[in-house]
Amino acid sequence: MLLDCAGKRLDLGGPVVMGVLNVTPDSFSDGGRYLKLDDARRRAEAMAAEGAAIIDIGGESTRPGAAAVSIQEELDRVLPLVERLSGALAVPISVDTSKPELMRAAVAAGAGLINDVRALRAPGALEAAAAAGVPVCLMHMRGEPGDMQHAPRYDEVVTEVRDFLAERLRLCEAAGIPRERILVDPGFGFGKSLAHNLSLLRHLDRFLDLAAGVLIGVSRKSMIGALLDAPAGERLSGSLAAAVIAAWQGARVIRAHDVRETVQALRVCAAAAAAA
Asked: Which domain holds residue 203?
């Protein structure tokens, strides 16, 4: 299973790691660390050397309670880095945004995948992604970052999240984005309680037939912190456990801050899955 990411291949024959690179002052784990272009470039190069199959660049924090930023500010944060990395790295670059203006500009600058926490629901986003011609990732989020964790409720979380993603897939196909160019993400921590997150992780295999692959992001998240009673910087072991559980059920892209360790964990998981 291969995705063509603006001329760079993303091989999803087995689970791969998407390295997280936030050029924001307020992301929950690495906010403020990579605001300088050279620092961000070095981090991207290090993640690629550690085995990341794709680098995901975000210029607007979507942590619970985060405030929105202007399109110009997000462009200023993201575009110089996309331009720098797209020609320098062999791996594809993903842009983590919901804004159609940034989608168009980032793909023009060399980005090969659009990763949208709002599943292309912003006005003009679906059309921009279809015209860009690159793969997209559709994520489920209930509410907005500012309020999504205010007592989220579901009757049956797995079914409701799956139905939402299936409907977004239908609309993407109608807009001209083929299913084989789409990833889906159930959105761990985006409008879900700990119980909701655990149920989604337990039943992740129910999402496998929706699209080209399932992407998950659990790295260092509050669900891990709640289970381990640990701050963001001390959640590696729990993040790796969740990554392996997801990969064992068929997830193809694991979004992670700790690239080397996650690559190694997935290598063991893949070897066990392939054993006779």
From this structure: 2-270
